Structure formats: structure tokens, C-alpha cells
Amino acid sequence: MDVSFRDKKLAKTCGSKKALVKAYGKVNARKIMMRLTLLEATEALSDVPVTPPTRRHELKGSRNGTFAIDVQQPFRIVFEPASNPVPTKEDGGIDLDAVTAIAIITIEDYQ
Q1: Using one digit for the tens of pLDDT, what is the confidence trace for 59-77?
Q2: What angle is formed at CA 78 by the lines to CA 76 and CA 79, rounded to 5 degrees?
Q3: pTM of the full predicted structure?
Q4: Three-class SS state of 95
Q5: Is the pLDDT of residue 111 over 70?
Q6: Which domains does the chain have, with CATH numbers?
Q7: Inter-residue contact 8 to 19 (CB < 8 Å)
């Protein structure tokens, strides 16, 4: 899957192991790198596991249309489909099989 970043500073941080460790700590940095590698290795969003430790899940409320995967409690990688328009199914839901590009919005504790 094609992975991009909405924020240049976050892209720069995620592009450097040293910067990731400084921003998120050693354990989180390692897990963030693992999750980004997983996202890049998949063909479509539907291929990202919904079970732990990754636990892909769709967000609701003010974050409707975005997704997250777990890094390590309380941190998650939050992203959205990068297609415009977002591919949808007949029922109006997002077609996860057709989402082949995402944009990382943030890495945070959003709770």
C-alpha cells in the first residue's frame, strides 16, 4: 500500500530512527517502524489485521472516515484513505479492498 504523511514534520520524524526514538521513546519507535513496514507491505487496507497487536479499526464521531492501528497503549497511528474520492461500497461504507493508498495524519493517544 502507498503510505504518505499529511504533515511534513511527522514524515521527517518517521523517516529517522533517531528522531522516532527522541519523539516516542525506544519501544514505541521500534513498534512504529514495524507498523509502518506492515502498512507498506500490504496491498489494500483490508489486508491490515483487525486483531492485536495491529488491530486496525475505523474511528467514529469527529474522526469518521479515518482509521487507526495500535502501536502500544496509549499510542496509535491514525490515517485516512488517500484516494479522492474515497472508494465506497453500495451501502456507503468504505471499500477496504479498494483502498490502496493512505495518508498518516498523526501518531498519538487520541482517547
Answers
A1: 999 999 999 999 998 899 9
A2: 150
A3: 0.94
A4: coil
A5: no
A6: 2-108 (3.30.2310.20)
A7: no
